[in-house]
TrEMBL record, chains A, B:
It is found in: Cytoplasm. Belongs to the class-II aminoacyl-tRNA synthetase family. Keywords: Aminoacyl-tRNA synthetase, ATP-binding, Cytoplasm, Ligase, Nucleotide-binding, Protein biosynthesis, Transferase. Pfam families: HGTP_anticodon (PF03129). GO terms for biological process: mitochondrial glycyl-tRNA aminoacylation. It comes from Coemansia spiralis. Residues 229-548 form the Aminoacyl-transfer RNA synthetases class-II family profile domain. GO terms for molecular function: ATP binding; glycine-tRNA ligase activity; transferase activity. Its main location: cytoplasm. The gene is GRS1. The keyword NADP does not apply. The lineage of its organism: Eukaryota, Fungi, Fungi incertae sedis, Zoopagomycota, Kickxellomycotina. PROSITE patterns: AA_TRNA_LIGASE_II (PS50862). Homodimer. This is glycine--tRNA ligase.
Amino acid sequence: MTDSKLNIDRVALEQLLNKRFFYAPSFGIYENVAGLFDFGPTGNALQQNLISLWRQHFVIEEDMLEVDCSIMTPSQVLKTSGHVDKFTDWMCKDTKTGEIFRADHLVEGVLESRIEGDVLARKMADMSVSDGNDKTVATDAASSSKGSNAKKNKKKGGPIVATKLDDSVVEEYRNILAQIDNFDGHGLAGLITKYDIRNPDTGNEVTHPVEFNLMFESNIGPTGHIKGYLRPETAQGQFVNFARLLDFNNQKMPFASAMIGRSFRNEISPRSGLLRVREFTMAEIEHYVDPLRKQHPRFSEAADIKVPLLPGSVQLEGKSQPIVMTIGEAVEKKIIDNQTLGYFLGRIYTYLIIIGIKPELLRFRQHLQNEMAHYACDCWDAEIKTSYGWIECVGCADRSAYDLTVHSNFTGEKLCVRENLSEPRVYEKLVCEPNSRVFGPKLKKAAKPVQEHLASLSADELTSVKNALAKDGKAVVKLSGTTADGEYEITPDMVSIENKTITEHVREYIPNVIEPSFGIGRILYSLIEHSFNVRADDEQRAVLSFKPVVAPFKCLVLPLSGHPSFEKPLLDVARRLRSNGVPARIDDAASASIGRRYARNDELGTPFAITVDFQTADDNTVTLRERDTTKQIRGSVEEIVTLVKDLVSGNTTWDDVLASHQLVNTAAASS
Amino acid sequence: MTDSKLNIDRVALEQLLNKRFFYAPSFGIYENVAGLFDFGPTGNALQQNLISLWRQHFVIEEDMLEVDCSIMTPSQVLKTSGHVDKFTDWMCKDTKTGEIFRADHLVEGVLESRIEGDVLARKMADMSVSDGNDKTVATDAASSSKGSNAKKNKKKGGPIVATKLDDSVVEEYRNILAQIDNFDGHGLAGLITKYDIRNPDTGNEVTHPVEFNLMFESNIGPTGHIKGYLRPETAQGQFVNFARLLDFNNQKMPFASAMIGRSFRNEISPRSGLLRVREFTMAEIEHYVDPLRKQHPRFSEAADIKVPLLPGSVQLEGKSQPIVMTIGEAVEKKIIDNQTLGYFLGRIYTYLIIIGIKPELLRFRQHLQNEMAHYACDCWDAEIKTSYGWIECVGCADRSAYDLTVHSNFTGEKLCVRENLSEPRVYEKLVCEPNSRVFGPKLKKAAKPVQEHLASLSADELTSVKNALAKDGKAVVKLSGTTADGEYEITPDMVSIENKTITEHVREYIPNVIEPSFGIGRILYSLIEHSFNVRADDEQRAVLSFKPVVAPFKCLVLPLSGHPSFEKPLLDVARRLRSNGVPARIDDAASASIGRRYARNDELGTPFAITVDFQTADDNTVTLRERDTTKQIRGSVEEIVTLVKDLVSGNTTWDDVLASHQLVNTAAASS
């Protein structure tokens, strides 16, 4: 269990994130609603930096067509996409109090509590500790140490009761937990009955799970008749614009659209901080590709990237150790379905490493057949290891032609590509042609629907009609779902059904879509966990070691003390940094020692600090401190500002700076 | 009328914006819903650039605390802020068909049609044209020339009927139209009755106007019991976080928070393209300031900026010609209420000029007393002149302490600043102190509420109590809205009411808020109108002359023709630009001449174009063309890429480039 979770002091980290306003529950001074979070100045800047890098890495470098579509979506669009019917979770209710649970979370919580109770019982037996009472309620030490949030974070599976279970039962529970995501409503109902799962707080039985749609609903306009949903993903806005985008791209294929924006999911039970929320920022790419040519023109650039893969076949063997191999090898061995999918896995990997995700805490897990949507032909998740376990942060699916097909079918608008063939395609085809002198007059208003029906028949079906006409002298056509439903008799004089030679100069196809989809909040939280350290010499001093390129604030500017002579040079340095586009924070709180001010900015993850001291007045020099090494150098204001700009933009590194500058000898107090 | 509107060919512009996918109605392949727009690659990039510049100009240079709060807002927050009760428009219905109108738009449309009918009638009389028929229905030439949108854009006031009106009636109508925004429901009802305003399409009467709340409503969570609204502005999320933000700022005042994000207004009748929509991106600053010290530390930087002002006093004189003066002078003369408000007007002006708004098409209009919220003490709109008239694009209001006060009162959370006074404040105050031996035992459970009531009395009220006790030997306290409502008798033994000397070391105050609020979509649309030109030598060739810093795509890369040898250098140039962060588009459509490709990228507003030609293979040089001058120079790939990077970042200008390079002699066809 533990080796699938990152071992960090999450309580300390959460306190830091709250204190330094990375994020906090929205509308916290009101009775706040679960699953909504506000990003403070620190979290917001971090998020913006992740988005900027994403835009540079994907949109600009790959020349994607970035769009910005409406969040409010008329219901029919999401009916067509399948979300109105299928975007649901299973919920059940306490039969007496009416309290609502997400069914899989309830089963999970109760079974986990039982396993923990078993572990506790075995431990107590081992220690030969017995107070003559077989069952003991454990004190909820872990949650009470969380401070003020403890009361709100109810233990989801109820109090842990020390009750020994049979080994086989424990094994059974663990098996269920490992595949809890795969149970549908029926399966969950079975588990609830079989294992007598109840509301842990009341002991009451719960109802059979029913489906709950996860979309927020609203009405558009004053009549109340136009139903809308808040989009649950950015993808549909991109799909419905496909024809415009293809046109913008001068009809050239393949190409990609992209969108960064807010999406909404009305989760039954939000939990795990930023990991399961009701409103979140996502970044999605829809790469449109010819289904017959899934090669990628830049594949060679990704082919040599080594990535840790956990293919379906390995998971089915019950293993969780990823295989490290190059993208090129994985595509060649058909572990990854095609070059385009492989190329994007490589690009996703590079992006995550650039922002500071630790490579050893990152893996690509392939979806098993039963996890995938029926239309998907391959899907991989970039999973990042956190203290909550392996978290899906980026999905990368080949969605085939599903989305464009359903929108095109419903609206009647062509969402397809027409390709001029250099060699025309010539083939034989059985074709039904009406004899207009007889066909129309006989069928009257039904003529057009009958003709369309005949044109839509397969070769086999059309052969049956032809045979019937030859044998019986007639054939019956049955229409349904048209404006002229009913049965119509066709006679041989009305149609000719013959093989014809067809010559096509244009190939028309609906592109397949490869969709890398990024949960920005999840990536942000995982990155914070990976960046969280304590000073080697003082466990109380936490540091967020963000890379300069993602750090929320790039440079701290501070005076050695509250001496009034420091104010002018301080403002001058800050102004110069800001007008160079370097976000700089001043920390001149005279009440705090310089050591304490360094420490609190270490908690913001600020990589550099410029200090104005008494020497500044003499020679206009300042010191520059780097967060992780705590080493300092000295230089003129001009030089140091330029240096910081170069450090932040990646034009130079701190190692280079150290190699070319003399260290300042700092007293312990100011390090 | 016409001189208040920018004279451009809006039909041509709209066709260009649609063709080049700046934006388009959302979900256009479905039956689309009014007031929702998708930004295509061009519009999105333009919007992103406006946002980046905004962030640099305000957030970074002014060290504002940018946050990112939830869109979904629990209803109580917006009940407290006043939006649930007051954020409404007036709507009325056709009494027979039920068709819904925004009441002010209906009145406006009908009166405008009548005035146009009058103009037409007078014109016909002048021309002595008469077909013996007094009333003539004009052909709707203007709207049919709009092409495919004509059917959807119904003439809002009905067909124009040539009917002469009395001069005094025309005058009356014009007066109403000039102040249509100032009528409430009662006033609009009066107009509808007095002028017999009907549904122009059916001739039916309309109902009295009723209030319609403009917020989109939804339910949060699975119970359906938690009502939420989509935020109508970003401000409230900032206000409720005030205490956290002050803390983050180390308790230092003044400071500002800022947010860029989506907001929603369920408009009754969206219209005028991006100008009145249901979902939009806004950027808001909340600057928190001591009500006693509204000076601004950087005021001197804004004091010399000359701005066109239209103060309330000038408007009341019926004038519309702005006064041009410096911010410093306007604040000194109290035309602008205070330094901080003035400083922000200056910064807003600078921002709008930087992005390319034409200074002669920009003015600051002060709200009249009856336009302002009751709590606001001064408010100015930055209005930009467009073909729709003067459009409010930025509001800048002094909201006093209203918002923080109401949220604080409702939640009981202190949203205030505690300032340590250097000199303690000493004053006399009448104070009521309970005698604890008698007070508690006599009043029992009511003791605390009665004591709180007494403490809340004003000096005059407390004096009355003191007098009653002295005269009658008793006083009656009446509680309401407490846990112990009722009347309670107080006797002299229970309290002592005496003057005391109070010494305060801390001053506690609720800050005032200065709020610059930017409608990004409106600014974007206005900027497009200001950038729209046609080539002097060819009116059919439209150009969007965006400054390089806001242009959606910075550089076009194209081959002289479809010759295969151009492909490699083409990709090389594009790759180099993109990895330098310069968004570059390739246009290698072999079917289009180079002139046509230049032209279509002029329509995207792309300022620079690099062309690969036959000479490139020989000496690795390319040409660089600038959009507005259409002049070209030649240089090595490396030099030109660096030059473009510098041009885009503002490190150099095209004039500088022309001064130091020889012009390429271009054939007419390729200009």
